[in-house]
Design a protein that fits this description.
globular, 136 residues, binds zinc ion, 0% strand
C-alpha cells in the first residue's frame, strides 16, 4: 500500500472484486469535494481512520462505515478499508491491535489516491449513469 507500484497493484486487486468496484463517487460527493477542496477531505479522512478504524476494537466494527454520505466512506468500501475484518482479509492488518500512526497515514494516502482518481475520471464527462436530461 505504500509505493506507487504497490498502490497500482492494490487497485488492480480491488478492480477484480465485483463488490469493491461497484463503488463510485456520486454527483453529491463531487460537489462536496469541489466545495471543500482535497485538503479538507484529507483531514476528514485522517479523522475517520483515527477514530473509526484505528482503535484495537473500534465501536460497531463491521458496520461503522456508511454506504454513502461522504466521499471517504465510498473510498473506504472501494478500497476494503471499511472495517477491521476487511483490513485483515485484504491488507493483512491484524485485528485486535491499534493501527500505528505511520500505517494510518499510508491508509489515508491510499484512500485519497482513490478519491483523486475517481474525481479526475469524472471531470468533463458529465454525470455518469444518468442519461436523461443531463448535458447537451
Ligand atoms: Zn468491511
Amino acid at each position: 500500500m505504500q509505493t506507487q507500484a504497490g498502490r497500482e497493484n492494490a487497485f488492480r486487486r480491488l478492480a477484480k472484486s465485483k463488490f469493491r468496484s461497484r463503488f463510485h463517487l456520486s454527483a453529491d460527493d463531487r460537489q462536496y469535494i469541489a466545495e471543500k477542496g482535497m485538503e479538507t477531505i484529507r483531514r476528514h479522512c485522517e479523522d475517520f481512520i483515527r477514530t473509526r478504524l484505528a482503535l484495537a476494537t473500534p465501536p460497531n466494527d463491521g458496520r461503522q462505515t456508511p454506504m454513502r454520505g461522504h466521499p471517504v466512506f465510498l473510498a473506504q468500501h472501494a478500497c476494503a478499508c471499511c472495517c477491521r475484518g476487511c483490513m485483515e482479509k485484504w491488507w493483512k492488518v491484524p485485528k485486535g491491535t491499534p493501527i500505528p500512526p505511520e500505517r494510518q497515514s499510508r491508509i489515508v494516502d491510499f484512500l485519497m489516491a482513490w478519491i483523486e482518481k475517481e474525481y479526475e475520471r469524472g471531470q468533463g464527462s458529465g454525470v455518469r449513469g444518468q442519461g436523461i436530461g443531463v448535458g447537451v
